[in-house]
Every structure is written in structure tokens, then in C-alpha cells.
Design a protein that fits this description.
Layout lengths: L2 H38 L2 E3 L9 E3 L19 H5 L2 H55 L1
Antiparallel strand pairs: 1-2
Helix pairs in contact: 1-3
């Protein structure tokens, strides 16, 4: 395998690594969006199956009345439907996914840039060698 073929193969692998990193970062972004949805949006809870009048619940993070840990009524329907462990678990799952995505993206980008730099240096060395050969022939 010639060095140019190896270099192209190396760049292709680096591009695939970077693409995997982008994919994992997108997945982490979706997990963060889901966590945001769980914490910031109001929701409804059925007291029984096919309930015609579900209980309306405020967002968990910024309720208008009370605090996020206090149920507004004694029933606790809202508190049982969306509790903190689910949102924290989604957020916790996003951390290793985002770290892996960032590492893969950075590794692929740096590998690709280093390959381009090495190719440019080889071309410059070739030009310098040609210039030296011409100047030595001219003497």
C-alpha cells in the first residue's frame, strides 16, 4: 500500500470516528431535551383509566405555586407521575454519552487535521528538495 493510499484510508477512518462522535453528541442532546421536557413542561395525569377530567399538574422545576417537592393537593397524583429520579436518570445517562461523543469527535478531527498537515509538510519537503536539486545543477 502506497503512502497516499494509507493516508486516504487513515482520513476515512478519522472521518468515521468524527461522525460517530457527532452521532453520540446528537443522542446526548436528545437526552438533554427529554430531561428539559420532563422538568419544564406542565402535564396531565389520569386518576383512573380513560379519565375524562385528568388532573392538571405544573412543571416540576418551576411551579407557579408552592415548591417542586410539595404536591398542591394531598392526592399526590402529580408527584407520582413525574418524579425527580426519572429526570436525574435521563440527565445522568446523557453524561457518559456526551463525553464519549466529545472524545470521538475531537479524536477524529485532530487525526484528520494531523494527516492534512503531514501531507502539506511532505509536499513542502518535495518542493524544497526540487529547489535544492535545481540550485546544485545550476552551479
Amino acid at each position: 500500500m502506497r503512502s497516499s493510499e494509507y493516508d486516504l484510508d487513515f482520513r476515512d477512518r478519522a472521518s468515521r470516528t468524527r461522525a460517530w462522535g457527532v452521532g453520540l453528541l446528537v443522542v446526548a442532546g436528545l437526552l438533554w431535551s427529554w430531561c428539559t421536557l420532563l422538568l419544564l413542561t406542565p402535564y396531565e395525569v389520569d386518576r383512573k383509566p380513560d379519565d375524562r377530567y385528568p388532573v392538571e399538574c405544573e412543571s416540576r422545576l418551576m411551579p407557579e405555586r408552592g415548591t417542586a417537592n410539595e404536591p398542591l393537593s394531598r392526592s399526590g397524583y402529580c408527584q407520582n407521575e413525574r418524579d425527580w429520579p426519572e429526570a436525574v436518570a435521563v440527565l445522568g445517562l446523557s453524561v457518559p454519552v456526551s463525553v464519549a461523543g466529545a472524545v470521538l469527535f475531537t479524536s477524529g478531527s485532530v487525526s484528520r487535521r494531523m494527516s492534512a498537515h503531514a501531507e502539506a509538510m511532505r509536499e513542502l519537503d518535495g518542493l524544497a528538495d526540487e529547489r535544492e536539486a535545481r540550485s546544485s545543477r545550476a552551479r
